[in-house]
Amino acid sequence: MSDWTLAGKAALIVVHMQHAICKTPSPLEVLGHGRAAEEDGIVPRIADLLAAFRAKELPVVFMVAYTPDDARFPAYGGFWPGVQQSGANKLGTWDVEVIEELAPADGERVIPNWPFDIFRQTDLEQHLADLEVDTVVLVGVATGMSVGTAAFQLADRAFNLIVPSDAVTDGNRQLHEAIMAGMIPAIALVTTSDDVIAHL
Fold first, then answer.
1. By percentage, how much of the chain surpasses pLDDT 90?
2. What is the spatial distance between Cα 73 and Cα 19, in angstroms, rounded to a whole number?
3. Which residues lie below 8 Å from residue 23, measured CB to CB, with a gap of 6+?
4. What is the CATH number of domain 10-199?
5. Residues 189 and 162: beta-carbon distance below 8 Å
6. Given a cut of 90, is residue 190 above it in pLDDT?
7. Domain ranges of the chain
């Protein structure tokens, strides 16, 4: 166990571990996040964290990406055409359900967001405030997209942030490694899932 102290009350936020992104075959597997999740073994690590948070009766929140009917798709960037053409991630469909291995327990919030910002047009900030959360443990996919964006958003709101390096990944390996080596350590404690569990 490494030498740090958990600051205040912790919550676990699980980002976009849903069928359309993490299952094969699925509409968005071309992004490679599901393949990376399997290769890196992040699903069992997230499952371990879920079990530990539940055992301590600490809050768990799941974010799922959805595509609203009136979604705008910018002209530039490789991400937008794939999502638009796939027609994926409509609310109420299999696409936006959390994968079975990490299924939410009764009472755990599942909050839809679009596209990367987990706070935009959601009640996440108020939900965390209502729960008196001080520290967020952030896991899921993808490091170069919603997880990385969420990390900055949480830091900007002055949450104490912990990112277990074995519980996040990205289909773009180079981007994942650069963010985990450079950006995330500037705003978060980077450790392992086992180390987080040991400190709960």
1. 88
2. 22
3. 29, 34, 99
4. 3.40.50.850
5. yes
6. yes
7. 10-199
